[in-house]
């Protein structure tokens, strides 16, 4: 089946099998390796991408369901060679260790800040509840999202 969608701001058209998952389409067909498979059951958040600015588990979603949508992976966040404020905050606050979960965390945080530019700590924790980090711990991650919400230099 032919699908047309936008991935990281670029139009994309592909012939996909109806059983192909979105994660496999992004990784194998488009070489977007930031999208990672952790649990394969939608419980860890490593495969999170934004579909029309909303976080989704790409390991659970057939690629054909993204037809007509705008898909954003962490590769599409930087602009003009500059990291997105969320990406920079994660680096500045030490919210990255092994990096496996980081793209999903960053995208989930980015979606939260688009929807709610000044979230409370409780709202940040609630938004990130579907993303699991086994290395860094959540305190630096929450602090990174708070810093991104505060804006550059704060």
List how many beta strands DSSP finds. Answer: 5
Mean pLDDT: 94
Strand content: 5-15%
The biggest sheet, with number of strands, parallel, antiparallel or mixed sense and barrel status, is:
5 strands, mixed
Supply Rg: 15 Å
CATH topology group of the largest domain: Ubiquitin-like (UB roll)
Q: Count every helix, treating DSSP H or I runs of 4 or more residues as helices.
A: 5
Task: Outline the structure in words.
- This protein is of the alpha+beta class.
- It folds into two domains: 2-76, Beta-grasp domain (Ubiquitin-like (UB roll), Roll), CATH 3.10.20; 85-150, Orthogonal Bundle (DNA polymerase, domain 1).
- It contains five helices and five strands.
- It has helices spanning 22-29, 85-92, 102-115, 121-127, 138-150; strands at 2-7, 10-15, 48-51, 54-57, 70-72.
- The chain has a five-stranded mixed beta sheet, covered by helices on one side.
- A hairpin with a 2-residue loop joins strand 1 and strand 2.
- It is globular.
- The protein starts with a strand and ends with a helix.
Q: Could you give the topology of this structure?
A:
Layout lengths: L1 E6 L2 E6 L6 H8 L18 E4 L2 E4 L12 E3 L12 H8 L9 H14 L5 H7 L10 H13 L4
Parallel strand pairs: 1-5
Antiparallel strand pairs: 1-2, 3-4, 3-5
Can you summarize this structure?
With 154 residues, the protein is of the alpha+beta class.
Q: Which properties best describe this structure?
A:
154 residues; Ubiquitin-like (UB roll); 2 domains; five-stranded mixed beta sheet; 15% strand
